[in-house]
Design brief:
Blueprint (H helix, E strand, L loop, with lengths): L1 E8 L4 E3 H5 L6 H8 L3 E3 L6 H15 L9 E5 L10 H9 L5 E4 L5 H14 L6 E7 L10 H4 L5 E8 L4 E8 L6 E2 L20 E2 L1 H22 L9 E4 L4 H11 L10 H4 L6 H11 L8 E8 L3 E8 L6
Parallel strand pairs: 4-5, 4-6, 11-12
Antiparallel strand pairs: 1-7, 2-3, 6-7, 8-13, 9-10, 12-13
The protein binds coenzyme A.
Coenzyme A (COA) binds next to helix 2, helix 6 and helix 7.
């Protein structure tokens, strides 16, 4: 694969820590020091479909292709208000494309899961141009009367267009069923045949367990892909990590013994936007000219499942 174009879109409403402290028992100092987050963008008047459409259009324009050129759309999304049809099919109509579409739920590691699937399609010549779109609204999973999860998340969409190339040097996906540390249950319609009416829950998270699992799984994925690519950590130019908590990023940085400047972040402004966090970061860095031609990028993410993914890519600059 090769990344040919990137795009992203964030909701217009910015929410500061002080705004949250207006209705939750929390404060800017606690949120900043424990997470690194100062603001996040939260959907108000727009919808996730609006954001996803904008991100997709930006990625397609920067790749210099038309929507008709796409052979496949993979949309990474944990949940949105359409249970069916798939979000990818809605965006397909908005952008005017006519290729097959599928949604995948790889939680916050969804972008890397999508990259691996796309690589198989490109390698076997089943597709020449693929849109990966990560569109997430995790702020709608949280209990907003409660401070433990609602302070962490933001909404957003990030997208890339992929074409053929040999830029993927190594990739690793993992999953291990650990539902209890992080889950969200949606209400389904009752039927006359159902006897056990299970209660649904807003996002439930054991923050300390997730923190520990995130650091250890990311460190082991990073070691794995470095070995697979026959590279040392100092040969990586940028570690683009899932933006979940600045302290998680810092713990991973310490593990690989690399300087802070190799760990660009935007969690300060956006919070955790789930699977959209890495493609939003890539889009921003690329548009601002921070990713030189030939840079080696290491991506790593983790999320509910518990799922993880990491990969190493060679970067080629994009003209916007
Ligand atoms: N504001 C103020 N105080 C808060 C608070 C908030 N929003 N949330 C918790 N606290 C308090 C707790 O009540 C506790 O007080 P106590 O010591 O008097 O009991 C104290 O702060 C420490 O709570 P704890 O939960 O141990 O904090 P922590 O250092 O583990 O940080 C998280 C909590 C959620 C920030 C951290 O565990 C984390 O980031 N985990 C990973 C979450 C994540 O990445 N999830 C998504 C994965 S894709």
């Amino acid at each position: 694969m090769r990344i040919l174009g990137t795009g992203s879109a964030l909701p217009s409403q910015t929410v500061t820590n002080d705004m949250l402290a207006g209705f939750l028992d929390t404060n800017d100092e606690w949120i900043s020091t424990r997470t690194g987050i100062k603001t996040r963008h939260i959907l108000s008047d727009e919808t996730l479909v609006d954001l996803a459409t904008r991100a997709a259009q930006n990625a397609i324009a920067s790749a210099g292709i038309t929507p008709e050129d796409l052979d496949f759309i993979i949309c990474s999304n944990v949940a949105n208000n359409y249970v069916t049809p798939a979000l990818s099919t809605i965006i397909q109509g908005n952008i005017g494309s006519n290729c097959p579409c599928v949604d995948l739920n790889g939680a916050c590691a969804g972008f890397i899961y999508a990259l691996d699937i796309a690589e198989s399609f490109l390698k076997t010549d089943r597709a020449k141009k693929i849109l990966i779109l990560c569109a997430e609204e995790p702020t709608k999973f949280c209990n907003w009367q409660e401070r433990s999860t609602s302070i962490l998340f933001g909404d957003g969409a990030g997208a890339v267009v992929l074409g053929a190339g040999d830029d993927l040097k190594a990739i690793r996906l993992t999953a291990s069923s650990k539902k209890e540390v992080l889950y969200y249950q949606r209400k389904m319609e009752p039927t006359p045949f159902e006897h056990n009416n299970e209660m649904t829950m807003p996002l439930v998270m054991n923050g300390r367990d997730v923190f520990r699992m995130a650091v250890s799984s990311s460190c082991s994925d990073i070691d794995f892909v470095l070995k697979e690519a026959n590279m040392q950590s100092d040969e990586i130019d940028f570690f683009l990590l899932h933006q979940a908590n600045m302290r998680i990023i810092e713990a991973i940085r310490t593990h690989v013994h690399q300087p802070t400047k190799k760990f660009p972040s935007n969690i300060q402004r956006y919070g955790n936007t789930s699977s959209a966090s890495i493609p939003i970061l890539i889009d921003e860095l690329s548009r601002e000219g921070h990713l030189p031609e030939g840079s080696q990028l290491l991506l790593s993410a983790f999320g509910a499942g518990f799922v993880t993914g990491a990969c190493i890519l060679t970067w080629h600059t994009i003209q916007y």
